[in-house]
């Protein structure tokens, strides 16, 4: 007792403060967001089911208490009232832009940000592979997302979803040369199909009218891309993908065809398919597998017609700049990662959509441009 009488009162105060701090450290919930961190979450959904277009952040109960979660809401969506018209801006139709992102190109992002379609009607979705290249692409993408979403409201997108795959890309190199080797096509395209399906099924909500598939290496397109494609009122429609390059023979910039997956089928290709095994796949653009299909890439200016609105019906499509009415995907048209009538991925998607009653179209004289490696 004498020891306590001789102690300085300041010692007791210090001891009480230390005990209080130690108790806070032990019993506070490190996962509970601070009040300041909640200020930016006013656009988060209150429940995982409502609304599905907004991010949902699961909160931990305070101090580990067993607090019953609020009952999920009942939300009614009248999909018959969802429109896909030739004037999507006036009718406030929402567009979901989906991109498998193995590499990040600044030109792609700048082109995306420059689209004239109202950004508050656009949601973005990305799927990024595992691995070093995927990590680099993710870092660059996150930097750009932060800039645009914290910038002027008019330039912000309605929502952005980024998925990371739990498997690595089947190809060690993502160079253009390696990606397009014939022996790599089945494995590469199957992985791409799985990535597309995962992205689609995760991000498409009941308010989505259109889905625009836009490849990450498309660095130039008309700013009115969405309006231009939607104006044709087709269930599936694609632009013609070309590439700008320096022509050494002409000593000047020129263009060349890039996407050969937009085609009209041929009797030769159909005969080749009949001789194939059930798991074999026909690929376009390879001399050792000559199909003699009519490629949209070579229909530019056919019969002197350079009208950018000229349409052709297609049997196969690529995914470089592909606009799809969301109801086509809702009907079950997806990207087969297996041999589907000897087709796979985007070309298999066109075949599956056709089996469901949806036709595909292309615009031979309407261009988007691929990055030139």
Would you kindly provide a written description of the structure presented here, covering whatever features stand out?
The structure is a single chain. The chain is α/β, with parallel strands linked by helices. The chain has eleven helices and twelve strands. The chain has helices at 2-6, 9-27, 35-38, 106-113, 132-149, 176-179, 185-203, 225-230, 267-274, 326-330, 345-355, and strands spanning 94-100, 122-130, 159-168, 208-214, 218-220, 236-247, 252-257, 263-264, 294-295, 312-314, 321-325, 360-370. The radius of gyration is 26 Å and the shape is elongated. 32% of the residues are buried.
Q: Which helices and strands, and how do they pair?
A:
Blueprint: H1 2-6, H2 9-27, H3 35-38, E1 94-100, H4 106-113, E2 122-130, H5 132-149, E3 159-168, H6 176-179, H7 185-203, E4 208-214, E5 218-220, H8 225-230, E6 236-247, E7 252-257, E8 263-264, H9 267-274, E9 294-295, E10 312-314, E11 321-325, H10 326-330, H11 345-355, E12 360-370
Parallel strand pairs: 1-2, 1-4, 2-3, 6-12
Antiparallel strand pairs: 4-11, 5-12, 6-7, 6-11, 8-9, 10-12
The total of beta strands comes to 12
Number of helices: 11
CATH topology: Spore Coat Polysaccharide Biosynthesis Protein SpsA, Chain A
- Major pleated sheet: 10 strands, mixed
Give the CA-based shape.
elongated
**Which architecture name does CATH use?**
Alpha-Beta Complex
Give the structural class. alpha/beta
What share of the residues does DSSP label as strand, in percent? 15-25%
H and E order: HHHEHEHEHHEEHEEEHEEEHHE
Q: What's the end-to-end separation, in Å?
A: 83 Å
Name of the CATH superfamily: Spore Coat Polysaccharide Biosynthesis Protein SpsA, Chain A
Total tally of structural domains: 1
Q: Helical percent range? A: 25-40%
Instruction: Kindly report the average pLDDT value.
Output: 86
Main location: Golgi
Keywords: Golgi apparatus, Membrane, Signal-anchor, Transmembrane, Transmembrane helix
Protein name: Mannan polymerase complexes MNN9 subunit
Transmembrane segments: 7-27
């Amino acid at each position: 007792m004498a020891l306590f009488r001789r102690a300085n009162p300041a010692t007791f105060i210090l001891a009480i403060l230390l005990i209080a701090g130690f108790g806070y450290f032990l019993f506070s919930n490190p996962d509970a967001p601070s009040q300041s961190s909640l200020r930016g979450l006013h656009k988060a959904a209150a429940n995982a089911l409502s609304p599905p277009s907004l991010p949902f952040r699961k909160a931990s109960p305070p101090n580990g208490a067993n607090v019953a979660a609020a009952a999920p809401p009942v939300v009614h969506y009248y999909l018959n009232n969802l429109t896909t018209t030739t004037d999507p801006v006036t009718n406030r139709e929402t567009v979901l832009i989906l991109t498998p992102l193995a590499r990040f190109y600044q030109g792609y992002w700048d082109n995306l940000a420059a689209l004239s379609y109202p950004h508050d009607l656009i949601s973005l979705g990305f799927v990024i592979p595992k691995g070093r290249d995927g990590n680099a692409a993710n870092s660059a993408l996150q930097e750009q997302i932060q800039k645009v979403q914290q910038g002027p409201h008019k330039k912000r997108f309605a929502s952005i979803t980024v998925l990371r795959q739990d498997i690595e890309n089947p190809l060690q190199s993502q160079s253009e040369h390696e990606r397009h080797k014939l022996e790599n096509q089945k494995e590469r395209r199957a992985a791409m199909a799985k990535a597309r399906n995962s992205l689609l099924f995760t991000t498409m909500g009941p308010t989505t009218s259109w889905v625009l598939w836009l490849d990450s290496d498309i660095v130039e397109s008309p700013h009115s891309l969405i309006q231009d494609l939607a104006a044709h009122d087709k269930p599936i429609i694609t632009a013609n993908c070309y590439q700008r390059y320096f022509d050494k023979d002409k000593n000047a910039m020129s263009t060349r065809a890039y996407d050969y997956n937009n085609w009209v089928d041929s009797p030769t290709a159909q005969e080749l398919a009949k001789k194939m095994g059930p798991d074999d796949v026909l690929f376009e653009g390879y001399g050792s597998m000559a199909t003699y299909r009519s490629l949209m890439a070579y229909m530019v200016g056919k019969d002197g017609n350079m009208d950018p609105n000229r349409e052709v019906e297609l049997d196969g499509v690529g995914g470089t700049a592909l606009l799809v009415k969301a109801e086509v995907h809702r009907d079950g048209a997806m990207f087969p990662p297996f041999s589907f009538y000897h087709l796979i991925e985007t070309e298999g998607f066109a075949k599956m959509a056709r089996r469901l009653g949806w036709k595909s179209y292309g615009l031979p004289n309407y261009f988007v441009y691929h990055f030139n490696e």
